[in-house]
UniProtKB/TrEMBL annotation:
Keyword Signal: yes
Pfam families: DUF2155
Signal peptide limits: 1-26
InterPro entries: DUF2155
Domain of life where this protein originates: Bacteria
Name under which the protein is recorded: Glycosyl hydrolase family 5
Keyword annotations: Signal
Length: 138
């Protein structure tokens, strides 16, 4: 091994103990509530609404169901993302899946749901909501 490779290896080994603890703290935190914003393009009204994970909320003709909502702890830069399913209730009362995938709060245009009348996007995650939690199923 050449001197420069030994020096590089020594530097890396000396730095790893300081880097590893920081990497461990970057874990995603699961949250029970996803926060969405939606716009009704006819009225121009923007609405913010909370949805519990694995519950469905209707927004206009859309049904929004978050499957998971992740954030980071307060020591990390917030990167909020969630896996979401969105269904449309058609005029003939059929339910049609129009979106399944990840939404990213810091890039709302990337994976927002765009519908002819309603757009929906993830804005945040939180541990609790003013909206009452759904009753446990028996």
């Amino acid at each position: 091994m050449t001197f420069s490779k030994k020096l590089l290896a020594g530097v890396l080994l000396g730095v790893l103990p300081f880097v590893a603890p920081q990497m461990a703290s970057a874990a995603r935190l699961e949250n029970p509530v996803a926060v969405f914003a939606g716009i009704d393009k006819i009225t121009g009204r923007i609405t913010t609404f909370d949805v519990y994970v694995n519950e469905t909320v209707q927004y206009g003709a859309l049904q929004v169901t978050p499957k998971v909502c992740y954030s980071r702890d307060d020591t990390e830069a917030q990167k909020i993302d969630g896996f979401v399913e969105v269904d449309e209730i058609t005029l003939d009362r059929k339910i049609r899946r129009i979106f399944t995938g990840w939404m990213f709060a810091d890039s709302p245009g990337l994976n927002a749901v765009e519908h002819p009348i309603y757009d929906v996007w993830l804005t945040g995650c939180k541990a609790e909501s003013d909206v009452p939690a759904p009753a446990p199923s028996n």
